[in-house]
Amino acid sequence: MADTESKIHGEWSSRFAFILAATGSAVGLGNIWKFPYITGENGGGAFVIVYLLCVVVIGIPIMMAETMIGRRGRQSPVNAMKTLAKEASADSRWQYLGWLGVIAGMIILSYYSVIAGWALAYVLKAISGTFMDGSAQQIGGLFDSFVKDPGSQVFWHTTFMILTMLVVVRGVQDGLEKAVRFLMPSLFVLLILLVGYAMNTDAYDQGLSFMFNPDFSKITGNSVLTAMGHAFFTLSLGMGAIMVYGSYLPKNVSITKTAFMVAGADTVVALLAGIAIFPLVFANGLEPSTGPGLIFQTLPIAFGQMTGGVIFGTLFFVLLVFAAFSSSISLIEPAVAWMVENKGYSRLKCCVFLGSLVWLVGLGTVLSFNEWADITILGKNIFELLDFLTANLMLPIGGLLIAVFAGWVMKRQHSQDELQLNNKGLYYCWIVSVRYVSPIAVFLVFMHVIGIL
Ligand code: PHE
């Protein structure tokens, strides 16, 4: 067992490596692309507060639960759930929870790769000086004509998918650790720089107050669902990504500390992105609620105006691509790990097969911005539908079940062993959250949206 385990499963070289990889998974398009635009669409401050609450009350405890299940199960989510269910003499159908995650991850990656493709395309636009001296209108137009062109989006989507799969083929340590080690700090520095730029615009106060002055009349059941869904999405929870990374975690590492660090870093990056973007939105007379194009329509304006804009612009989009990378890898890793374990195919074969499947589904998202823009179900185009289905439904449901599993099915002795919380109070908070608070919160939000409450 130990032998096959080490063949299939590498182990992180250190605690720091795990933190880096988990942060790499968490910090991605969700923080820099999605958080600002959904905050814009949902009215700002009040939405941000609900999101932050969800991160602390639901997100961190579930992140601990996922890491713990992964480390104890030591396999892909599907098999880890199976093993732990057996250990607890529980129903073997718990393994389907692993399946839910595998499928959610693949669907998310299908559109994630398209958006990451936009970022790739914007690297080239930045290098070639396209943003220099562009007015807000011109830069907005640039984005509009780009997304109207399915050909170039397919090209960049394909490029991103191939790059991702190349890293995934190499396996967990080689590819990942190296990529993330230098990426995270650089991204952070660049965001601070952009915040510095935003501070010097006239609309800095307006941007800040949009983000932090809550107006609860703007909150609807749906925005609460979006905020909660985003807490799962941004922390990579509810689908097994953190579980898979947890399975590579050495035994002696504190799960609690790492969960707090990862969630903390993730939240800081999202807030910095918002603080950098909203002042620009208002300074240029744009609407915060323009949707998925928001950062592509605002940040280039800033790059166009600042000295060294070509360099900073290029650097920013390169880093965004890297941030997307370290997340996309973790979106497909549960599926790859499962296929390698169960089908006995080589990692390469599994990657080619799964990567192609995801790529194909991604074409639906590409077309939803142009040729198929009018095809809607429940008022949502294909991209919106896939996003809603995964971030707002599948991840919270997955998270709820993970919480129930960790809190009710696993033996207390086992979760205590894994979490090793010497502080009894902290363990108590955790168990109360995964047993009651998280499941009930997710359930109530769903009920509210369905209209029963
Ligand atoms: N957390 C990533 C982001 O914010 C997306 C992601 C979701 C990655 C789920 C893995 C699992 O961009």
What does this structure look like?
- With 453 residues, the chain is an all-alpha fold.
- It has a single domain, classed as Amino acid/polyamine transporter I (Up-down Bundle), CATH 1.20.1740.
- Helices cover 78% and strands 0% of the residues.
- The protein has 19 helices and no strands.
- The protein has helices spanning 2-8, 15-26, 29-41, 45-73, 77-87, 95-127, 136-147, 150-169, 172-199, 204-212, 221-234, 241-246, 255-283, 294-305, 309-343, 347-368, 382-409, 412-419, 424-450.
- The relative contact order is 0.20.
- The model is unreliable at 1-8 (pLDDT under 50).
- The structure holds phenylalanine (PHE).
- The site of phenylalanine has 15 residues, from helix 2, helix 3, helix 11 and helix 15.
